[in-house]
Amino acid sequence: MFFFRQAPTKGMTAQEAVTAQRDGRVTVIDLREHGEVASTGKAAGALHIPLSRLRDMADSRHPDHHPELKPEMALALYCASGARSAQGARLLRQMGFEDVHNIGGLAHWQRAGGTVLNA
């Protein structure tokens, strides 16, 4: 029996996310904790939703649902290094979100030309 691996789909890069956000085609989400955002700032225009709150805020049935999180939207997630944003992307896909991208960490956003605002 033969098994063929499907080529991995190319995700959105941080540079593509910077451009897509400027054009209004993606919502950027910072998954870091409050203290991290307070000490380093966050991507301009990004929603701040700590990973620990993502499930509730992405669930339209939950009282804490964030109205900007809709399954049909393109979402670009980042954290400090990319590990939590990978977890967040998996979680959102399990919840029915399809256009979800891990763009790495805040430093990736900055190197791609994204603006960071101080908290």
TrEMBL record:
Pfam families: Rhodanese (PF00581). Residues 22-118 form the Rhodanese domain. Keywords: Transferase. Transmembrane segments: none annotated. One of its GO terms (molecular function) is thiosulfate-cyanide sulfurtransferase activity. The keyword Transferase applies. Gene3D superfamilies: Rhodanese-like domain. This is Rhodanese-related sulfurtransferase. It comes from Salinihabitans flavidus. The lineage of its organism: Bacteria, Pseudomonadati, Pseudomonadota, Alphaproteobacteria, Rhodobacterales.
